[in-house]
Amino acid sequence: MAKRLQIAFLGGVEEVGKNMTLLEYGETAILVDAGLGFPDSETMPGIDFIIPDLDYLISIKDKIKGIFITHGHEDHIGSLPFVLQEINVPVYGSAISVAFADNKIERRSKKKIKQKFITVENGDVIKTGPFEVEFIRVTHSIAGAYALSISTPAGIVFMTGDFKIDHTPVDGKRADLSKIAAIGEKGVLLLMSDSTNATKPGYSMSESKVGESLDEIFNANRTKRIIVATFASNIHRIRQIIECSSKYSRKIAFGGRSLQTTMEIARKLGEIKFDDEMLVETTTKIPDERICLIVTGTQGEEMSALSRMSSDTYKGIRIDENDTIIISASSIPGNEKSIIKVINNLSKRGANVIYESLSEVHASGHAYQEELKLMFALTKPAYFIPVHGEFRHMKAHAELALQMGMLKANIYIPELGDVISVNRAGIKKLPSIEAKGVMLIGDRESESGEIIERKKMSEEGIVIIAITISGGTKPDMRIDLISKGVTIPEKLEDDIYSTLYTHFGNVGYKDMVPSEISKVARRLITKLFYSRNKRSPMVIPVVMVE
Question: Under CATH, to which class is 5-202+364-445 assigned?
């Protein structure tokens, strides 16, 4: 095999999430990130999450020598339990990334994995075959985030991971811009940079500004119960919520298993500190003005703590006029309807709901245009590939590179499954590989037909036809209709009964097996619904013989 640097995009391009990039040189390969994606509930109803297609990785698993994690968000580590079942290699990452990954493997793996996690710090260099991977600290919405400077025989590949340039980070650990600049002076062959916010001008807001906004809200709501919903992994945000609670003499309680797990890990690693007496398990005996609940549910997830509170099904919590609820997160594309539904339900119960468009209660973890330009100026790459975003984000990022003086011929916008080779002579597209996402329900892969059925049920409703046949010398048939998500007009209901009784009476149903009766009933009712109502609900006949 000719020795050349190849890069395969298995996820994280043309989409937000499911980040996974493979670098190969000769007989050695390394994997950067192993994330999962989150489905759109409208187009993929019932799907829990999506992981990258692992077939190509499995086909070259003897070449893969390590997995390098940029940070501990689900879209960068969530598919590790599935990858490590097939390819058991060392995993390198920050202490908190490794702790999160270990917890996910403990919960999700079907079989015991003897994984080897190696914790790294800023400036650490890992050598494997022809690759030398240096971890360089950046700021993001989670602690322990790193960019990767990957030295190869073809040149340096600089991968930013998810980043922003926050000069006043909550933990005081700024991005190591001087080290990034020094790498740029050595000469970067290829920059692969986060494109999530490439359409947004200016600079992203500092996370510390969110702390100031939270303080103002806590101060203005001294007599009310305060509930704050945020991402479980956003340790810096949770840290500021706890600090506000302490300042205003409030106890704290966590709603949601993922939050409790995050707190255990973060406290163990010293990322969050608070006295044990601040934490309570139940809030029923604590006055409203002395409690702050920190909960999950910023994306309107049906079973999350905030959603259950909005529908009055959360044990021990009843929302009313004395609640101030802060949704401290932005919406992930596709979740807007679910979030609005939760906000409306909370508002109906009397709560004062504060969210991103009303107050500065959320700061993005991704760089805006001026920060992206700064990264470009520091690294001074010969070639550029925008990653981590939908196509529109990557295209906007490519346009920024043009503004910075990059030649159009030196920019490549990848599609999912693309494979390229790169050296000083340029970027060359190679044959693509299969890289469609694998949809999972729990840990089980879902068939496409199952998704179609679920989608049809959510859009058109479901009609169940219960047909009971009694035997004997005078056979009898009883028919009952049950509908969900679709209204059956009285006239149509009468026609359904009449059609079924007439048809089966004429053909002699007593000589038919249940599967035949079921097939005929489905066809007749489907045809009736469409001809009368122009709707096509899922029709499920249930035939019982007494």
Answer: alpha beta
